[in-house]
Amino acid sequence: MDTREILTLQFGHYSNFIGAHFWNLQELSFDYTGTVKTEVNHDILYREGQTSNREVTYTPRLLLADLKGSLKTLPETGGLSNDLEDCEVPWDTVEKIEQPAADKNEYLKHIDSDEVPSTAIEQNNYNFDQNVKTWTDYLYPRFHSRTVNIVKEYQYGNETECFDIYNKGTNVWKSDFGDTFSDSIRKYVEECDSIQGFQVNFDCTDGFSGLALACIEHLSDEYTKSILAYPIIASHYPDNDPKTQEERDESNLKDSLRLVNLALSVQELSEHVSFFVPLCTGETGWRKPGRPRVFEHVNYNPELYYHSSALLASAIDTLSQKYRHKSNFYTLSDICGDMTGYGRKMAAASMQIPLTFKDTQYLIEYLNETTKPLYSSITPSCKIAPDKIFQLITIRGIPESYLKAPPKQAKEQMNLPAYRCNSVKEMFELYFQANNFLSATNVTVCDKPLELKTPFPKIFSENLNEYGFVSSDATQEKIKSCPIIAGYHNGNFLTNMLEKLHREVSRIQFTKLHKFREEGLEAEDYKEKLNKLAEFKDNYEDDFEL
Fold first, then answer.
1. CA-CA distances (angstroms) from residue 267 to 17, 264, 329, 345, 527?
2. H-only helix segments in 349-411
3. Measured by CB atoms within 10 angstroms of the end CB, which terminus of the chain is less buried, N or C?
4. What pLDDT score does 2 carry?
5. Res 80: pLDDT
6. Which fold does the domain 6-92+135-339 belong to in CATH?
7. Beta strands 484-491 and 348-352: pairing type?
8. How far apart are CA 262 and CA 233, in angstroms?
């Protein structure tokens, strides 16, 4: 069987919050009994290995980077019982530094214990909203020994020496960190039979932007494989609510730095990746993340990374079904090729979680009666147009039994053209054909819904039943899974986002960017990058016909 492996790279603290939820969703959906039909080919994102004791392991094919002090209870060796899984270490070069171990919370103690059954874990109230301080506080899987990579030059939470500048990241890559990280990439790639490419998630508003882009440039130079990147903007920053004039001035400065990092990221991505999709649960993304995106029947706190990152992880998990589904022969290369015509390497993403209609309602009725868009944009400063677009849509968790009423009960349903559809896929294809003028839509449908097992945050309305459909039954069980829709969208509408980004970053005088100049960014280089960003924007301005 053609495995079509993908190597995932995560750079930055917020991206690792998303990654923790993403890998939780993967691992908590594993079936170890062999009795459940599996739609996803897990070998695409996971690798099988052995510890030095010849114990079989199954770990994410993953490399992640974060700052010193961010791991808390997770050891740098990945957390497997045998710390150094199939990894050769020259012991004479190891310096052992004893540090007091961080206390594990109750959830981490329970998943490490053989005495606590999974049913007890699901029923326990771990109070994650108050107890989660970093992404390792709710991380379920354990990692390969080469997965975790720490930027030791910078301390997490240190406001004096911040890892806040794009060029700080590029300078870190030029150090031993880059050599070690690129060597780990090579080892992963050599293990693969037919690697299809790389999936890169990174914080694009701080130093991790430069670190990620330096790594991406390395991938582009060394490997002729597809690169899908998600530049990610956090849902909230500590300086977003200044109280004094001094705090406002400090916040404005940080906003400017984040904006420049973002602009540099987009410009470099336009040259070095196959396809990229900016993500943020805030409406604007910059200078502040803005008002939180609204999802019906979801109540989340954007100030809690634990909450907002779960939403973006759900979107990435759903979007990735396209190239991980066993019955779908789409590859990463196919997606990149379909979505990036006319030099338009950037697209927008959308999601609706849950895709809710009443449990007494059929899909044909829901699609015929709804007047709202089926999804919300999760790309900053971007309103997705309904017409003249390319889009890849993935829908999960709608049973075929919800499609339409049987002929004897159909009544007025039979008068609708959609009644001739014999599958969820056909009905959605007809819906998008009717509602998106001059557009090309590719629909993927997965039977399995998004599973909402602990430690996924409790952010859903109480009027949803256990399957995520709206119910009036007050005695219903709590939600355990939900239907979800997510999509990639590309078209002229992205001109507005790029124009806004270029206009706002152009207002910042280079002479005020002291930190960037100190880290080696020259005025001429900066001007050239802004010019290239404007040229990239031009790719979206000409009309096209499908």
1. 25, 5, 31, 11, 12
2. 363-369, 407-410
3. N
4. 65
5. 76
6. Rossmann fold (3.40.50)
7. antiparallel
8. 9
Q: Quick check: 199 and 333 in contact, CB under 8 A? A: no
pTM greater than 0.90: yes
Nearest to 14 by CA among 455, 254, 313, 453: 313
Q: Do the beta carbons of residue 163 and residue 170 sit within 8 Å?
A: no
Q: Which residue in 486, 413, 481, 389 sits closest to 445, CA to CA?
A: 486
Sign of CA dihedral 399, 400, 406, 410: positive
For residue 165, give every residue at least 6 positions away whose Cβ sits within 8 Å of its Cβ, in sequence order, or none: 206, 207, 210, 257, 261, 515, 516, 519
3-state helix, strand, coil in the chain (%, to 5): 40, 15, 45
Work out whether the CA dihedral 228, 278, 317, 426 comes out positive or negative.
negative
**pLDDT tens digits for range 283-301:** 999 999 999 999 999 999 9
Tens of pLDDT, residue by residue over 408-453, are 999 999 999 999 999 999 999 999 999 999 999 999 999 999 999 9
SS3 for 424-460, per residue? HHHHHHHHHHHHCCCCEEEEEEECCCEECCCCCCCCE
Give Cα 150 to chain centroid, integer Å.
21
Let me know: does 206 contact 261? Beta carbons within 8 Å. Answer: yes
d(CA 1, CA 90): 36
Q: Is the dihedral of CA 514, 517, 521, 525 positive or negative?
A: positive
Q: Which pair of structure tokens corresponds to residue 209? A: 């932007």
For every residue of 299-350, which 3-state class applies, written as one string? CCCCCCHHHHHHHHHHHHHHHHHHHCECCCCCCHHHHHHHHCHHHCCECEEE
Decide: 276 and 336 in contact? Cβ < 8 Å: no
Give the start-to-end residue ranges of the domains of the chain: 6-92+135-339, 348-494, 495-538
DSSP element (H, E) containing 178: helix 176-191
CA distance linking residue 486 with residue 465, whole number of Å:
21
SS3 391: strand
* Pairwise CA distance, residues 53 & 416, whole Å: 63
Q: What is the DSSP string of 477-494?
A: PPP-EE-EEEEEEEETTH
**Of 236, 215, 74, 216, nearest in space to 147 by CA:** 74
Per-residue pLDDT tens digits for 480-522: 999 999 999 999 999 999 999 999 999 999 998 999 999 999 9
412 Cβ contact list (under 8 Å, min separation 6): none
